[in-house]
C-alpha cells in the first residue's frame, strides 16, 4: 500500500512480492475496503483540496478549519492527492485538533518533509511526515510553515 498503487518507490522486487501475495491468496476486495473512506471524510478531503495554494511554485499547501472526527485521515489523503499537481515537490494539509492544528506532509521524493515537520515539532520519514501544534490557530500554523518553506528555498 505504501507504493501508492505501484507509482511510488517501486522496483522489480515490489512486483515480485505483490505476485507472491496474490499466489498466497491475498484478498484484493478486503484491501480495497480497508482503504475506502466514509462519504463525510471524502467530502472533508475535498474541502481541504479546494483551499490549496502553491507556495514558491513547488509546495502545495491546503487546509480546512472545521473540526470533524475523520479530519486527520482526510488531511493525510489530501496531502497524497496534492502530489498529483504538476510541479509539486511536497504537499502539506492542515486540519484542526482539539486545542491546536495538525498538518500532514508528503514528498514526491526530492524534499525531506521529515526535516520540515521536525522544525514544527513533529516528525516522520523523508517522504511522509506530520506535526501536531498545540495552542496555535490554523493561520499561525500556516504562517510558520511558509516561513520554514522560505528557509528551505534559500538553503537550496
Task: Give a short summary of the structure.
It is built from six helices and six strands. The protein has 156 residues and is α+β, with helices and mostly antiparallel strands. The mean pLDDT is 89.
Notable traits:
156 residues; alpha+beta; six-stranded mixed beta sheet; 6 helices; globular
Description:
44% of the residues lie in helices and 21% in strands. It has helices at 12-23, 28-34, 39-50, 71-82, 113-119, 138-155, and strands at 53-55, 59-63, 90-97, 100-107, 123-124, 128-134. It has a six-stranded mixed β-sheet, sandwiched between helices. The chain is globular and about 50 Å long. The model has no long low-confidence stretch (mean pLDDT 89).
The largest β sheet comes out as: 6 strands, mixed
Structural class: alpha+beta
Number of strands: 6
The helix/strand order is HHHEEHEEHEEH
- Integer average pLDDT: 89
Unreliable segments of 5+ consecutive residues: none
Biggest β-sheet: strands ordered side by side in the sheet: 1-2-3-4-6-5
Number of helical segments with 4 or more residues:
6
Radius of gyration: 17 Å
- Percent helix, as a range, is 40-55%
| Beta-strand fraction estimate | 15-25%
- Which outline best applies? globular
- Cα separation of the termini: 32 Å
Amino acid at each position: 500500500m505504501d507504493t501508492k498503487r505501484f507509482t511510488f518507490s517501486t522496483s522489480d522486487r515490489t512486483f515480485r512480492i505483490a505476485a507472491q501475495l496474490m499466489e498466497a491468496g491475498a484478498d484484493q476486495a478486503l484491501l480495497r475496503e480497508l482503504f475506502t473512506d466514509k462519504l463525510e471524510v471524502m467530502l472533508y478531503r475535498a474541502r481541504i483540496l479546494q483551499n490549496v495554494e502553491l507556495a514558491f511554485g513547488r509546495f502545495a499547501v491546503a487546509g480546512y478549519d472545521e473540526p470533524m472526527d475523520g479530519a486527520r485521515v482526510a488531511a493525510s489523503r489530501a496531502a497524497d492527492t496534492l502530489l498529483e499537481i504538476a510541479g509539486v515537490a511536497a504537499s502539506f494539509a492542515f486540519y484542526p485538533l482539539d486545542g491546536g492544528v495538525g498538518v500532514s506532509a508528503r514528498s514526491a521524493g526530492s524534499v525531506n518533509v521529515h526535516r520540515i515537520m521536525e522544525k514544527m515539532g513533529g516528525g516522520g520519514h523523508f517522504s511522509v511526515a506530520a506535526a501536531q501544534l498545540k495552542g496555535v490557530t490554523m493561520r499561525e500554523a500556516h504562517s510558520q510553515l511558509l516561513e520554514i518553506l522560505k528557509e528551505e528555498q534559500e538553503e537550496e
